[in-house]
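#struct-help
A.M.: can someone run this one for me? Single chain, 434 residues.
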Amino acid sequence: MYLPPLSNDQEIFATWDYRKSLLRERIGLIDADVVCLQEVSPLSFESDFAFMNDELGYDGVELFKKGRFRPATFWKTDRVTLAIPPQHKDRTMLTSFRLLDGGSSTQDNNYQYWHVLNCHLQAGKQGGRRVRQMVEGITTAFKTAKNTLKEKDPENLKLIVCGDFNGGHESGSVQYLEKGSVRPDFIEDGEQVTSKEKVLPIPPLMDAVSTKWIDKEGDPPATLVVPEIISLMIEQKDAETAYTDPQFTKDVLDSFHRIYYSFATTHTPDESEKIQMGKADVERWLTIINLRVGRGTEFRNAAKLMGWVEPSVESGEEMCGDLPNAKKDERPPIFIPDDGILTLENFVSVYLDELRQGKFWGIAWDLAALGEPLDVKSVFRARYDRIYCSQSLEPAAVLDTLSEAACPNEFEPSDHLPVCASFRGRKEGDTQLR
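D.P.: on it. Structure tokens below:
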């Protein structure tokens, strides 16, 4: 994500055409059998990624069915074919393949099926949900191997788990994969991630870059290399409170106050001298930060604070994404009430909610777009993107991507660096997937 305002020499690098050319070059150079992406927009997906089929030959594709930004999995049908339709879960998507090159065509061959779980786990202070998402995804893969495909040894299925984990080695979802279980005493972000032990239905998975088959020096490199903004945004006086109950710094609060009064034009009936943000003011603000009214958690939270009442949903509905999983025609649309007022306190609370969800870069973008950019001077590094494999596999090669400069930039099209690996089965005569 580029933070405005951009210098003249950066403008070209921020365009989608330029970034798309980098993606096309990188993906074409690697020429993987299967490609997993995260955070693609369903509104422009077909045009954004037409090059995957037209120029690179990825004629198989599945786009996750929900969300503003979604995972997508591409594959080349002359190398792999779907064994069953893709399965969509909470922020994970499972594709089960049969390899065409070197694999047996018999349905009872346990070694011909490969399962790829494309993940974009929940961001922010949601460790428990990330664990549940990973448990659901792995369980789906295991049950598919055992019950649907009738594999001879489903506990040793060929499984690759990859994507954006939105957390590092300290997270419960990573603990679950690598250790084989996560217990109630495991704490993430100051909170319990599960009330009872969660145990993998298969042996622990292996972090591809850390396996014994890969020659390496030092720790795996960061995959998230971005402007360091957290220290500029969060009050650091009490380290523990900053972690469990973050608050904005005075400088950021002052910025929000200036932004608020730059939009406020509405006189309230009971306080004629007091100007606040009414419906039209809020819509102008939302259009700048989200391009249109009706999208984003800022819109939903502002609407509620201005008097919109969320309709009741039948108990037991599963939650997926930001809204209940009710049918679209059963859910009245969210709207901003005509007479609604967004007070200064509530305006700040909208962004406090974003902060507590870990949406630091979204807040930074809003501040910059609204004329109050943070004075960024350093780089934040973390390893959020990973590739795991089951113990029936071994990595034949792993490709790291390195960047010293904050991403995206002239050479990197995304704020997340790509991770790539090629895998082969550990039994003689097994197939290989990259």
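A.M.: thanks! The first strand starts at residue 34 and ends at 40.
D.P.: also worth noting: Residues 210 and 216 are 8 Å apart (CA to CA).
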